[in-house]
Structures are given as structure tokens and as C-alpha cells.
Write a structure and sequence with these properties.
The chain is mostly helical. It is about 75% helix and about 0% strand. About 20% of the residues are buried. It is a peripheral membrane protein.
């Protein structure tokens, strides 16, 4: 660097002397000139790409501040001195580092000696404590095994044994309450009893059998306590408003696993509710509701239909309520036959009211309040029999049997009453009235029949039962009526008998036409009316022909034979006789036409309030005149 600097500094002085600037035609310098080579090298150097040169020049600029001949000549010395100072400083600093490293080396050597000493001592200690380490390792392994066995034992006890609190809940105290925790403990016993079967498939059969036996004993103890508690709770359900608690419902759900205890508990419930229902029924009969509202049922004993209806309505409500109580009690029971159990217990509960109910209804029926009332009572009994059986099925046999017996009794007395009435009609047959209209006995009997059929139409018993009763009632009443009318008209003439029978049959028909299930009877009555009308028409025609003198002529014409000669030659058939007869017919026809005209005017007059008069008289007076002329 000093050489380069010296050469650069001398270049300006020697340039002109060597002729470096002689122009384009000058002869180039000799290539062997060292200075010239250096100059060319320097001039050809591109400082932009030489980073080291740039860094050197930048460092040079820090202390080369004055560009003079003297400083240029001393540049090399300055650089060397500066380099020497830097190297001396570097040596001084690294001397300190060397001293520090030597100190560290001494420390490391000391530590190495210490570690070697400790290693030697540890090796000696290890050789001395080898047996202790082996024993300690064995003890640690044994401790781990014992800890695992303790965990297994705890898990086994937790899975297959009950806690002391759970044992206390299941065994309990006599008369102590049963809570929700009891059922949780009971469920845990069942779970253990089922889970322990796993042990029976292993080599731990003895433990499994012991646990199973223990759980079985606990279950029996718990079920016995639960049964006693449920029995006590059921005995306390003697109020009309039976409030079945949720715990009692859970108890019945649990007891279904012990059918005998379950059945005994249901029997206890049924017995308690039976006495409650009987007491409530007697109170309703004699004392009425709270504060006298509603009034006692016995207060209405003078009204047979209401009396019987109130008793049956009370029993219907009580039966439905008892079924609801049982459904609430057994709502969580999943065993088969729950519905049958409910029906059986309801039958047992309602059995107690059968005797007082039967005695009172029998008194009403045997008092014979009348055919209509008896029939209404019979229908009422049939309706409640159907309604109650729809609620509890046919299991409430005693109550339903009692109601059915009373229904049959009322029905029997009713038909006996109708038969007695019919026999009285035949015992004293009335003569037809002078106007040949229906007799008073017929009107009274039809009024009775109308009341019976009206109550029958308003009945709420099933349709098939109503139809069967209807047929029997009609047979019991109509047949004697027809017989009575026939006997009553037997002493009349043919025309009068036909007239009386038509009037009587028409009255029966109009009565039956108001009710259902009478189509067959109406057809029969219509046939009989038409038959008697035919008889009446024939009799009236014969009478008219006789009165106008055409009877002899008509009969002679019908019986005349050609061999007898001409009709005009026969006596009373000459032209004079025929003209006289036709004159009588003409006058009679005119009278009939005048009578028809007056009747037609009266029927058509709105004042007389005939509905649809055209359907009554189909022909006008002119048409009648034309037909008869």
C-alpha cells in the first residue's frame, strides 16, 4: 500500500518528461517500464466493483486528512505505524484473554480433579450399598403391586358391595319413611346381583356366590320393608280425594318384581278404597254433600226416575274416579296384566255398594210406579250398565251383575204391567161408539204406548238393544189391541165393522208413524186398512146400487145367458124401468157432486188451515161431475 502511495505521489512529476501526453500520433510508452505498467493497472482498475479497495480508501480517509507532498511521502510510514499500534493493541487485549483462559483452565483442572475424586467415592459407595439398592428396588416393586391390588380391591368393593348408608336405607327402622334414596339403593342391589354373575364364569365362583347370596338377602329385606310401608300407605288412603304420592307409585313399580307382595298391596289398596266408596255412597244417600249441597239422594225417593238416576250417576262417577286412582298408582308398572289388575281391583272396590243399591232399586221397581216409569228406569239401568262396563270392562262383575239384575227385573215388571193392561182390555171389551170412531180404551192404550215409545226414542242405550225392546213392546201392546178391536166390531154389520176397523187401524198407524223401528208394523197396518177399505167400498157400492134400483138390473145382466132371450123381454128390464132407474142415478149423482163441491170449497179455504189441500182432494168439482156424469 505504501509503495502504491509513493508511486502515485511521484506520477505527476514524471508524466511530462516521459511524453505521455504527446497526442494521438505519439509513440506509446515502453511496456517494460514498471511505472507505466502500474499506471495502466491503476487506471484500468474499476473501483466501483472492488469493495476491498473502497473499504481501504474509506479507512485511509479517516486519518489522511491533508493531501500534501509531505503527507504523501510519509503515508507509508504512517500506515505502518498505525498497523503496528493496532497489532500492539490486539496483542495487549489477547494477552488478557490468554490470562483469563489460563485461569479458567486452572479452574477446569481443579473441577476435573474434584469430579474424579467424587466418582471414586461414588463408586466406592455404590459397591458398599449395592445390596441396599437391590432390596429397595424390590420393596418399591412390591409397593406398586400392593397399591394396584388395593385399587383393584377398592374397585371390587365399589362395584359389588353397598356403602353403610345404603345398607341403612334398605334395612331402615320399623315404621320409618321410604324416600327416593331407598329406590336408588334397591336399584344398586339389583345391579350388583346381576353383575356378580360375571364372577361365576371365572375362578372366583365362591366370592360370586357369597355376594349373590348377600344381595339376595338384602333384596328380600328391602322388599319386605317396602311392602310394609306401601301397605301402611294404602291403608291411609281413606279420603274421598285419594292423593297417590310419587313415592307410592315408585313402590308399586318396584314391587312388580315380587308378584305376591304386589298382589297383596293391591288388595290392601282395594280394601281401603272399598270402605271409602261404601261410606261415601251412604253419605250421599243420607247426608248429601258438604254443607248439604248437593242434597241427600234419599230426598228424591218420591221421584223414582231421578232417585235411581242419581244413585247410578254417583256410582258411575265413583267408578271412573277409582279407575283413575289405580291408573295413577300403577302408571310406572310395566308387567303384563296391568289393565286386568285395575279392572279386578275396581270390581272389588265397587262390590261393597251392590247390596244397598240393589235394595233401594228393588223397592222402587216393586212399588210399580207405572209402565212408563218402569220402562224409563229399565232404559236408565241399561244405559249405566253399558257406560260402566265401557270404563272398567266386564271385570266389575258384581256391580254390573247387580245393575243387570235390576234391569231385567224392571223390564219384567214393565212387560207384566203391559200384559195386565192388555188382559184388562180383553176382560171387558167396549162396544164401538155410535160414530164408529176409536174407542176410549183404544185411545188410552195408544196414549200409553205413545209415552212408552217416546221415552224409548229418547233412550241412550245401544241401537240394537233399543230395537229389540221396541219389537217386544209393540207385540205386547198392538196384538191385544187388534184383537180387542176385532172382538168389539164382531156384532156390527159388514160396512160398520169395516168402518170401525179402518178408524181404529188408522189411529194405530198415525201413532206408530212418529217413531223409528215401526216400518214392518206400519206395513201390516196398511195392509189391514186396505183390506177393510175394500170391504167397505164393496158394501157401499152394493148399498148404492140397491138404493138407486140398479142392483137387480146389474145382477140380471151379469147372470143373463143368450138362450134366455133378449133383456128387454125380461121383467123389470124394459125401457121404462131402465129410464126410471137412470133418473134416480142422475139425481143421486147431482147430490154427490153438490156435496163434494161444498167439501172441496171448505178444504181449499185458507181459513180452515189445511196443509197442502191439493194432496187431500186430488180432483176439482168439475172433474168429479165429468167422471160421474
Amino acid at each position: 500500500m505504501a509503495d502504491a502511495g509513493g508511486e502515485v505521489a511521484a506520477a505527476p512529476a514524471s508524466g511530462p518528461a516521459n511524453g505521455l501526453s504527446n497526442g494521438a500520433g505519439a509513440t506509446p510508452a515502453q511496456p517494460n517500464n514498471p511505472l507505466s505498467r502500474k499506471l495502466h493497472k491503476i487506471l484500468e482498475t474499476r473501483l466501483d466493483n472492488d469493495k476491498e479497495m473502497l473499504e481501504a480508501l474509506k479507512a485511509l480517509s479517516t486519518f489522511f486528512v491533508e493531501n500534501s507532498l509531505r503527507t504523501r511521502r510519509n503515508l507509508r510510514g504512517d500506515i505502518e505505524r498505525r498497523s503496528l499500534a493496532i497489532n500492539e493493541e490486539f496483542v495487549s487485549i489477547f494477552k488478557e484473554v490468554k490470562e483469563e483462559l489460563e485461569s479458567i483452565n486452572e479452574d477446569v483442572q481443579a473441577m476435573s480433579s474434584c469430579c474424579q475424586d467424587m466418582t471414586s467415592r461414588l463408586q466406592a459407595a455404590k459397591e458398599q450399598t449395592q445390596d441396599l439398592i437391590v432390596k429397595t428396588t424390590k420393596l418399591q416393586a412390591e409397593s406398586q403391586r400392593l397399591e394396584i391390588r388395593a385399587q383393584v380391591a377398592d374397585a371390587f368393593l365399589s362395584k359389588f358391595q353397598l356403602t353403610s348408608d345404603e345398607m341403612g336405607l334398605l334395612r331402615g327402622t320399623r315404621g320409618g319413611p321410604v324416600t327416593e334414596d331407598f329406590f336408588k339403593a334397591l336399584g344398586r342391589v339389583k345391579q350388583i346381583h346381576n353383575d356378580v354373575k360375571v364372577l361365576l364364569r371365572t375362578n372366583q365362583q365362591t366370592a360370586g356366590l357369597e355376594i349373590m347370596e348377600q344381595m339376595a338377602l338384602l333384596q328380600e329385606t328391602a322388599y319386605e320393608r317396602l311392602y310394609r310401608w306401601a301397605q301402611s300407605e294404602c291403608r291411609a288412603l281413606t279420603q274421598e280425594s285419594c292423593d297417590v304420592s310419587a313415592v307410592l307409585t315408585q313402590a308399586m313399580e318396584a314391587l312388580q318384581d315380587r308378584p305376591v307382595l304386589y298382589k297383596y298391596t293391591l288388595d290392601e289398596f282395594g280394601t281401603a278404597r272399598r270402605s271409602t266408596v261404601v261410606r261415601g255412597f251412604i253419605d250421599a244417600l243420607t247426608r248429601g254433600g258438604p254443607g248439604g249441597t248437593p242434597r241427600p239422594i234419599e230426598m228424591h225417593s218420591h221421584d223414582p226416575l231421578r232417585y235411581v238416576g242419581d244413585m247410578l250417576a254417583w256410582l258411575h262417577q265413583a267408578t271412573a274416579s277409582e279407575k283413575e286412582h289405580l291408573e295413577a298408582l300403577l302408571k310406572h308398572v310395566t308387567a303384563q296384566g296391568v289393565e286386568e289388575n285395575i279392572q279386578e281391583v275396581v270390581g272389588h272396590i265397587t262390590e261393597g255398594v251392590c247390596r244397598p243399591l240393589k235394595v233401594r232399586i228393588e223397592q222402587v221397581i216393586l212399588a210399580e210406579p207405572g209402565a212408563v216409569l218402569l220402562y224409563k228406569i229399565s232404559n236408565l239401568l241399561k244405559f249405566y250398565h253399558h257406560t260402566i262396563s265401557a270404563i272398567v270392562g266386564n271385570s266389575a262383575a258384581t256391580l254390573l251383575t247387580t245393575i243387570e239384575e235390576m234391569h231385567l227385573l224392571s223390564k219384567k215388571i214393565f212387560f207384566n204391567s203391559l200384559s195386565l193392561h192388555a188382559s184388562k182390555l180383553m176382560d171387558k171389551v167396549e162396544l164401538p161408539p155410535p160414530d164408529l170412531g176409536p174407542s176410549s180404551a183404544l185411545n188410552q192404550t195408544l196414549t200409553l204406548l205413545r209415552e212408552v215409545l217416546a221415552s224409548h226414542d229418547s233412550s241412550v242405550v245401544p241401537l240394537d238393544a233399543r230395537q229389540a225392546d221396541f219389537v217386544q213392546v209393540l207385540s205386547c201392546v198392538l196384538d191385544p189391541l187388534l184383537q180387542m178391536c176385532t172382538v168389539s166390531a164382531s156384532n156390527l154389520g159388514t160396512a160398520d165393522m169395516a168402518t170401525f176397523m179402518v178408524n181404529s187401524l188408522y189411529m194405530m198407524k198415525t201413532t206408530l208413524a212418529l217413531f223409528e223401528f215401526t216400518d214392518r208394523r206400519l206395513e201390516m197396518l196398511q195392509f189391514q186398512i186396505e183390506a177393510h177399505l175394500d170391504t167397505l167400498i164393496n158394501e157401499q157400492a152394493s148399498y148404492v146400487l140397491t138404493r138407486v134400483g140398479l142392483s137387480y138390473i146389474y145382477n140380471t145382466v151379469q147372470q143373463h145367458k143368450p138362450e134366455q132371450g133378449s133383456l128387454a123381454s125380461l121383467p123389470n128390464l124394459d125401457s121404462v124401468a131402465l129410464k126410471a132407474a137412470m133418473q134416480i142415478v142422475k139425481q143421486s149423482t147431482e147430490l154427490v157432486c153438490r156435496a163434494y163441491e161444498e167439501v172441496h170449497a171448505a178444504v181449499m179455504n185458507p181459513v180452515n188451515e189445511y196443509k197442502d189441500p191439493e194432496s187431500i182432494l186430488h180432483r176439482s168439482p168439475e172433474q168429479v161431475k165429468t167422471l160421474l156424469s
